[in-house]
Structure formats: structure tokens, C-alpha cells
């Protein structure tokens, strides 16, 4: 796909508007805040369908289907260039891809042991930590305290006694990887043109996760119905939200984007209730509210 094909609204052969131009025009007619919310719902809906697949496939196999789908689609459309890369570029790209693989694998392992809302809330501590670390104001101690209170409320005692310690551990690993993902994404953006850094990382991630996913999934990965569901999970969890977020970021300040993204744990909890029947206790809802409030507060203060 050439740059001219992306910029020219008309197909020279037919004189009709190009499909890409029509899609962009359609997305431009939607408020950017709505695009972000659609992306959040898409990601969490994909996670819900992925969790339903756990009855047939292990989490590592579902992760492989998700990442492989994203890598195929992004690799086909973006086609990252490998010529001219120095060893530092390779190190950043490969590190980015490995982090992406571990992040997704640990999150899906957490998802198989925890309700969606709890898994996403704990994972959100990663980007929250990056936001607080980038700011050295005293009020940030409040957001750290709120997040810590949320974690304590989610710990396996009281109404949360049935929550798995292993699930919490996997979610924390996913959060740490998400923090690394944010930093490596910025580094990749400086070394790779456009979005080719993410496409390169997705391909690396698929290669890294393939041995584990194929080994654990086995012949079940070849079942057409599972492949279709896995394709849907990949589109909902990676391709669609990434495209929506890119369109939104073109038209809104980054701090507003961050504020909207802060509601993701609450959306995950609601989808868990509606799609999976995961009823949370009052204590667990309070924990999610604490983490969402900490994320909102840190994002707003970062802007000021």
C-alpha cells in the first residue's frame, strides 16, 4: 500500500472513494471520546470471549491465537522494514516483543484464575506506577495510597477469600510488563518509523509465544470453530482497539485519552458480570473504585 493510496480519496480506476478513505471519514464523524470507549469495550469483550475459550484451550494457546492474529494482520498492512537496523534497534524491537508476549501470557493466566474486573484492576497498577514515577508531587502519595488500599481489598481474605494468590501474582507480572511495554513503546517509536515498531514487536511476540501455545494447544488449535473464535479474540483484543485508539489520539490530547482509559477496570468488571456471570462482592467493587480513582487522579495531576 503506497502513501499515495492512503492520501488520495479517490480510486483512479473507478473514480469512486477508496474504502480506506470511507472508513476514515466514518471514524472522523464519531467523537474521539466515543472511539476510546469503543476500544475499551472491544478489548474487554475480547477478553471475555477468550475466557470462555479456557474451557477448551489453555490460556497459553488462546494467547497464541490472539497474538498470531494481530501479527498477521499488522504485518500484512504495515510490513516493518528490517534493512538498515542497528543492533540497538534490534534490541529495542525484540525486547518490546518479548515484553508483549509475557504481558499477554501472564494476563491470560491471571484471567483464568480471577474475575475479569479484578485481573484488569491489578494489571492497571503497571501504567499507574509509570504515571506516578514520572511525577514527583506529594499528592502522588495519595494515589499510591488509594491503589495500595485497592490491592489490600482484593487480597484473599474477608469477602475476597476465594481469590487466588496465583492469579494475583500473574496479574502483577502483567502489570509490570505493561509498565515495560509503555517505556519500550516510546523507545520503539523513536527508532522505527510510524507504527512499524509495534508491528515488528507483534511478530516477535508471536514467534516467542508459538512454542508454548502450539505445545499446550496441540491438535485442538486446528479445529475450525476454535480458530474462528480465536480470530475474533485477536481482532477484538488487538486490531480493532488499536485502530480506534490511533484515530482517537489524532484528535484528542493524550491526557484526556489517559483519563478515559482509566475506566477500563470498571468496564472489565461490568462485562465480567454481563457476559460471564462473575458477581463481585462489595469489597471487590470498592477495590476497583480505589484503583480507578488513583488512575484518574494521577492522570489529571500529570497534565497540570
From TrEMBL:
It is found in: Cell membrane. GO terms for cellular component: plasma membrane. Keywords: Cell membrane, Membrane, Transmembrane, Transmembrane helix. The keyword Calcium does not apply. It comes from the Bacteria. The chain crosses the membrane at residues 60-78, 90-108, 114-134, 141-158, 164-184, 196-214, 226-244, 256-276, 282-299. InterPro entries: AA-Vitamin_Transporters, EamA_dom, EmrE-like. PANTHER family: INNER MEMBRANE TRANSPORTER (PTHR32322), S-ADENOSYLMETHIONINE_S-ADENOSYLHOMOCYSTEINE TRANSPORTER (PTHR32322:SF18). Belongs to the EamA transporter family. This is EamA family transporter. It comes from Nonomuraea turkmeniaca. The lineage of its organism: Bacteria, Bacillati, Actinomycetota, Actinomycetes, Streptosporangiales.
Amino acid at each position: 500500500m503506497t502513501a499515495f493510496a492512503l492520501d488520495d480519496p479517490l480510486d483512479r480506476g473507478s473514480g469512486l472513494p477508496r474504502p480506506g478513505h470511507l472508513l476514515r471519514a466514518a471514524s472522523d464523524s464519531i467523537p474521539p471520546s466515543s472511539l476510546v470507549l469503543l476500544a475499551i469495550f472491544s478489548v474487554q469483550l475480547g477478553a471475555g470471549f477468550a475466557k470462555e475459550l479456557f474451557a477448551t484451550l489453555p490460556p497459553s494457546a488462546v494467547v497464541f491465537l490472539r497474538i498470531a492474529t494481530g501479527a498477521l494482520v499488522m504485518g500484512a498492512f504495515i510490513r516493518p522494514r528490517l534493512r538498515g537496523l542497528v543492533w540497538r534497534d534490534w534490541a529495542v524491537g525484540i525486547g518490546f516483543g518479548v515484553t508483549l508476549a509475557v504481558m499477554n501470557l501472564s494476563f491470560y493466566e491471571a484471567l483464568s484464575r480471577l474475575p475479569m474486573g479484578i485481573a484488569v484492576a491489578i494489571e492497571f497498577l503497571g501504567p499507574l506506577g509509570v504515571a506516578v514515577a514520572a511525577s514527583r508531587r506529594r499528592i502522588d502519595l495519595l494515589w499510591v495510597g488509594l491503589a495500595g488500599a485497592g490491592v489490600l481489598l482484593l487480597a484473599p481474605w474477608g469477602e475476597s477469600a476465594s481469590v487466588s494468590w496465583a492469579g494475583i501474582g500473574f496479574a502483577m507480572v502483567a502489570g509490570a510488563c505493561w509498565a515495560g511495554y509503555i517505556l519500550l513503546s516510546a523507545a520503539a517509536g523513536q527508532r522505527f518509523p510510524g507504527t512499524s515498531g509495534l508491528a515488528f514487536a507483534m511478530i516477535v511476540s508471536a514467534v516467542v509465544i508459538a512454542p508454548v501455545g502450539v505445545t499446550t494447544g496441540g491438535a485442538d488449535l486446528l479445529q475450525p470453530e476454535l480458530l474462528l473464535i480465536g480470530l475474533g479474540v485477536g481482532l477484538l483484543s488487538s486490531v480493532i482497539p488499536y485502530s480506534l485508539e490511533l484515530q482517537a489520539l489524532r484528535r484528542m490530547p493524550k491526557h484526556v485519552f489517559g483519563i478515559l482509559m482509566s475506566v477500563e477496570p470498571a468496564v472489565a468488571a461490568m462485562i465480567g458480570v454481563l457476559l460471564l456471570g462473575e458477581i463481585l462482592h462489595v469489597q471487590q467493587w470498592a477495590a476497583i473504585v480505589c484503583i480507578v480513582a488513583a488512575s484518574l487522579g494521577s492522570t489529571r495531576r500529570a497534565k497540570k
